[in-house]
Amino acid sequence: MHNRWWRDAVIYQVYPRSFADSDGDGMGDLPGITGRLPRLKDLGIDAVWLSPFYPSPQNDAGYDVADYRAVDPLFGDLGDADKLIAEAHNLGLKVIVDLVPNHTSSAHEWFRQALAAAPGSPERDRYIFREGRGPDGALPPNSWTSMFGGSAWERVPDGQWYLHLFDVSQPDLDWGNREVREEFLAILRFWLDRGVDGFRVDVAHGLVKEETLAEYDYPTAVLGGLEPVGPPPPMWDQDGVHEIYREWRELLDTYPGGRILVAEAWVQPAERLARYVRPDEMHQAFNFLYLEAPWRADALRDTINTTLQANDEVGATTTWVLSNHDVVRHASRLGLPPGHGRLHGIGPEDPQPDTALGLRRARAATLQMLALPGSAYLYQGEELGLPEHTTMPHEHRQDPARARSGHTVVGRDGCRVPIPWEADAPSYGFGPSDASWLPQPAIWAEYALDRQQGVPGSTWELYRAALAARKEHALGSGSIAWQLPGDSGFSAPSGGPGAGDDGADVLAFRNGDVLVLTNFGAAPVSLPEGATVLLTSEPLDADGRVPTDVTVWASI
Ligand code: NOJ
Question: Residues 6 or more apart from 555 whose CB is under 8 A from it?
Fold first, then answer.
């Protein structure tokens, strides 16, 4: 693979807790992942991204890191990480690891030292400690709230407060402190030297806070998302973050083979996000505007246009994504009525998604995404068509956002359930025992890999075929030209309930020699004369037309 491999790569997110358990303790692990890399190779992906596997109290499923240079015994040891990297490379797969620089765990050595040291000490200066407000400092330094709910400040016994934008056990680091910057450069080197091909940077938009920690009284949705609220928040997307990434990029560029940085930055508009992927900064930034766009032709066309254009302007490719470990799986999200606003969890008491509709749309959405130029991220299980576990009893749920939000947010556990490999095995083949750290619903059997391999029309086979065709037609490195009814060779919806004659419910584009068409409307749509169907997310109708909620790739 060339140095710019990432520009059109399909990258598969492995959530180590829930991918494969080699020892039967109910928790996925690194040897489990290594053993199943051949399956991923078979799927046709180019790289894996692993969510955190570092030592951690696991208060936020490992995004609370206590030691950045080791492996949590839950998942194995450093030798297992080396083996995983070596085996992936043998198979021609790249490996991206997660880097969590905004905060450490409160169990990290630095935070222990900070608590043991006095106010004003160099140990405290690695974090954001402040005096409280009010006569005896009993009020938090400002009104900022945690992304998981409640105040973003916690008081320590000597009366000072520390900032935590996430859980109370995730104190924010002070990136104004040179020692913090040096430490993370050393951590990057540690993993680069072990051979990793890149880093997914957690909360990349949060490292630098506005200097005065200015008040911010606007409501911030628990767990965030991209809804616009008030003026630019003083804790997110400060201009100062960019110089950090320039320094990291310089370091990465000294290593051979194309090592990359991908930003997890919930930033809008698209032009602000594109600043993270300027030529001397990161390589990729997840396009969450696309993930959040409603299932409508006009909304998706606008989002695709705006993001491609913003990235073009800085010479970057676009990075598409529909699911990850923080949002309701797209096979369920797209089965909810419009405007449901449930991005971060669905519980048994909530209106339940329409499973069949959700899967139908998810397959259409994925085929659309995989035909867009740039890179695409898949989240483990989506290649099986897995839905969210929406009926998980609350006592099993572990997401800290649930408790901290006073149970107003269901939490993200429903998309993190261990995935099914074998329909008739204990824990559906997740591991050798029936243990599973989150309960797997009985419906997992029908989604198991062994029920789908070699089965025409299964979601697994659809993903495999799409990944192969995407490569064959070089869709990832192509460019798109919108096709509108009236363009030669393309016909408008052919009547029926809900059909407009303006094609408003159709999204169609050409990428090289492939026509990609999604029909969002009720009426079936005809393909242009002479088009040869390559792939469809569901069968065409008896007249060869594209039914509702179906995407087609056709060569023309
Ligand atoms: C984003 C991660 O994806 C999420 O899982 C985590 O809770 C927060 N960042 C805090 O690290």
Answer: 473, 513, 514, 515, 531, 532, 534
